Amino acid sequence: MIRRHLLALVVVAVASIAPTAALAAPAKPTATAVFAGGCFWCMEHDMAGVPGVLKVESGYTGGKLRNPTYQDVLTETTGHYEAVRVTYDPSKLSYAFLLYKYWKLVDPTDDSGQFCDRGPSYRTAVFVKTPEERAAAEKSRADAAKKLKRGKMTTPILDLGPFWPAEAYHRDYAKRNALKYNIYRTGCGRDARLKAVWGG
């Protein structure tokens, strides 16, 4: 009788522990990288297509104003860049390869904006968090500069400060507004310019 009672207690204890253990399983490690490449709608759309990328968020970084809005950044007085924060799986995608993909999505020879979007907030930049990221970014930039078909590399490598997520209506813009987005992208000449800068 005592053995039967003890066995029942063990079964209950195991049943109560098992779900907790499953919930406590460590999450897979992820990493983030921040890039500016002109219109964040386009950067969000293109970066999301890179295998190993888990999430891309549009936002603002590089300026001194706290909690900037789109209207603030549009004044071109805040110092912010339109940027994207890329969350990726480092077991499937290296930071070096993500940098390689980044260069192919921008015109790094233009230090006044990108394509039809002009002004400081539309400039290119790679934002880094550690000395290791800076070293990788500088090597990647040097390699990319050798592959340019025209122009000179002007994209800076900058220390990352606060990243402020953009307003909800900017997020997933290309997915939610496919027709408007495609008209904008074609009219802006983004893909034609990329072909001229990088070839292919």
From TrEMBL:
Among the Pfam families in the record, one is PMSR
| Gene name as annotated | msrA
Q: What does this protein do?
A: Has an important function as a repair enzyme for proteins that have been inactivated by oxidation. Catalyzes the reversible oxidation-reduction of methionine sulfoxide in proteins to methionine.
Q: Which residues form a coiled coil?
A: none
Concerning its family, UniProt says:
Belongs to the MsrA Met sulfoxide reductase family.
- Residue ranges occupied by any Peptide methionine sulphoxide reductase MsrA domain in the UniProt entry: 32-181
What's the protein here called?
Peptide methionine sulfoxide reductase MsrA
HAMAP family, sorted? MsrA
* Leader peptide range in chain numbering: 1-24
- EC top class, in one word? oxidoreductase
Active site feature: C39
| Enzyme Commission number(s) from the entry | 1.8.4.11
- The superkingdom listed in its UniProt entry is Bacteria
* SUPFAM superfamilies (alphabetical): Peptide methionine sulfoxide reductase
| Single GO MF descriptor | peptide-methionine (S)-S-oxide reductase activity
Q: Which organism is it from?
A: Caulobacter mirabilis
Q: What reaction does this catalyse?
A: L-methionyl-[protein] + [thioredoxin]-disulfide + H2O = L-methionyl-(S)-S-oxide-[protein] + [thioredoxin]-dithiol; [thioredoxin]-disulfide + L-methionine + H2O = L-methionine (S)-S-oxide + [thioredoxin]-dithiol
Keyword list, A-Z? Oxidoreductase, Signal
